[in-house]
Amino acid sequence: MSMAPAEYGERVPEWRNTFSSWRRRLAQRAVHAGWAWVQRTGSVTADRPGRFRFGAMGTGTRLAFPLGTVFGEPWIHLGSHCIVGEQVTLTAGLMPDLDLGPDPILRIGDGVVLGRGSHVIADTTVSIGSDCYFGPYVYVTSTNHSYDDPHEPIGKQWPRMEPVSIGPGCWIGTGAVILPGARIGRNVVVAAGAVVRGVVPDRSVAAGAPARVVRSWDPVAGWQPPLRTPAPVPIPDGVTPEQLLALAELGEGAATALAEPAPKGEH
């Protein structure tokens, strides 16, 4: 009695249509090229604002496509050379088509990076200083729900609003939440997933939910508690990008040796 090939553990070769496979690869490339064109064309800049009329938008600033929810843009001021990632929400006011007065509600400084999927909700004033970097999915809001009346649905109770300010040079980690009334100082690190309210002083690290200061800078003693990682090796003057790539292939020891001064008499 003959046995089927599968019973002997043999694999029956699959029939492949070379022409169909070639067509799929060509279609895939076309889709990727088309989507890249859509992203370039759909991005928003000062030169190509589309339907948006921001109160101010500096040179080199770009909002990536696809955008998140954007409204109240006449009261949104964006500095120069900002990068706003895909699906980032920027809003001024509780809802579209409100007259919010003569002054901007949301101010974003120069060189700010807002990571993909982040939300900045400015129902009252929100200020983000220059050179701040946000990871993905950061949530900043100047409004919080109130629950004073235990019998009324929370969503129907009038919210509370407090201004938010984030100083220049900050790093806001992935998934962090900045609540109404937060005042974050200069060069602050907010850890991923932290929930910040209240005041965070300059040159400190805040982590946790609710966030607390876990490390701070002392002008005499330096970082307290001390950093657990060595300081980065500075790049010597005159080193080219090609040399840096070559060093990366050789490993960390080569980069350290390059940064150390040569002994006297050696060139």
TrEMBL record:
<dbReference type="Pfam" id="PF00132">
    <property type="entry name" value="Hexapep"/>
</dbReference>
<dbReference type="GO" id="GO:0016746">
    <property type="term" value="F:acyltransferase activity"/>
</dbReference>
<keyword id="KW-0012">Acyltransferase</keyword>
<dbReference type="InterPro" id="IPR001451">
    <property type="entry name" value="Hexapep"/>
</dbReference>
<dbReference type="InterPro" id="IPR011004">
    <property type="entry name" value="Trimer_LpxA-like_sf"/>
</dbReference>
<keyword id="KW-0808">Transferase</keyword>
<keyword id="KW-0677">Repeat</keyword>
<dbReference type="InterPro" id="IPR018357">
    <property type="entry name" value="Hexapep_transf_CS"/>
</dbReference>
<protein>
    <submittedName>
        <fullName>Acyltransferase</fullName>
        <ecNumber>2.3.1.-</ecNumber>
    </submittedName>
</protein>
<comment type="similarity">
    <text>Belongs to the transferase hexapeptide repeat family.</text>
</comment>
<dbReference type="InterPro" id="IPR051159">
    <property type="entry name" value="Hexapeptide_acetyltransf"/>
</dbReference>
